[in-house]
Amino acid sequence: MEFIVSVGKIEDINLYYEVGATVLIFCDEFHGTRAPGKLNHQELVQAFQKTHDLGLKVAVYMNRIYTDKELVKAEEYFEFLKENQVEFIYYNDPAIYMIAESYDMVERLVYEPDTLMTNSRDMQFVLDQGIHHCVLSTEITLDEMKEICKNVQGKTEAILFGYLNMSYSKRHLIQNYCDELGITNTCVDKMDCVLIESTREGKMPIMEDAQGTHIFTDYVLDAFDEMEVLKEVGIHAIRLDGIFLPSEVVADACKAFMMIDLGMPSDQVRKKFEEKYKSIPFNKGYMYQKTNLVK
């Protein structure tokens, strides 16, 4: 099973290597979004080389929604990724699949349409196109995840740790709000802004970048106990998303998953982890409650 971690800084590569990560995901300044950090091309080359030298696999986010004018940049990026032997490309725009075909790189694609991968027929259709694997929606229950894994022929991935992407708009909603009030927008490309709804007490991380506005859950998913269940039904990979979290927290979480994978009781590992990080709002998310039942 692959242990995948999203990385924001080159300095964190060794840290994640030491705790057992097998795949590291990086993000550039144009093609990716919703990542712990973004690297320029020179930094990406350095990160790719360092990751490969450690014997780990490299992945990148290409989760932008592209316009026609932007597809030329996507093609140029594919050339860059092929040259640097990147193993996996996370995408959600079908245009990326078509470009990957022209570069003979379809088998490196990972389809991640955020909340949309909710049934086995959708997943099987995409897997049958020859891509490497698909990512399950984070807004379905554990039982629904199990059913999908059982019913598809192909590889699946589940995000089991981190803040979860809840809403995305290409509109710059914070900027529009600030313009209406006549105040300065201080949230552009920042990781410390939160949204508090009138009907909730939790603080939802919100960020605005060139690609739009992104809103995340007010909790951190820690599905340590659920990894064992998904492993039994053939899950191919689990991911730890490091956005908004200190790298040492993500590293400790990865180490915890590794310990469980090696046979340690998940409840003991989880309790010890949660005790260490009491200030973080951990939650099981939608694992045991359908989204339509969450207020």
Summarize the structure.
The chain is α/β, with parallel strands linked by helices.
List the helices and strands and how they pair.
Layout (H helix, E strand, L loop, with lengths): L1 E5 L6 H6 L4 E4 L14 H13 L3 E6 L8 H13 L4 E4 L2 H9 L6 E3 L8 H8 L5 E3 L6 H10 L3 E8 L2 E5 L3 H9 L12 E2 L8 E6 L2 E5 L3 E3 L1 H9 L4 E4 L6 H15 L4 H11 L5 E2 L12
Parallel strand pairs: 1-2, 1-13, 2-3, 3-4, 4-5, 5-6, 6-7, 7-13, 12-14
Antiparallel strand pairs: 7-12, 8-11, 9-10, 10-11
Number of helices: 10
Per the principal axes of the C-alpha atoms, what is the gross shape?
A: globular
Strand content: 15-25%
Mean pLDDT across every amino acid position: 95
Classify the helix fraction into a percent range.
Answer: 25-40%
Succession of helices and strands: EHEHEHEHEHEHEEHEEEEHEHHE
Lateral strand order in the biggest sheet: 1-2-3-4-5-6-7-13
CA radius of gyration:
19 Å
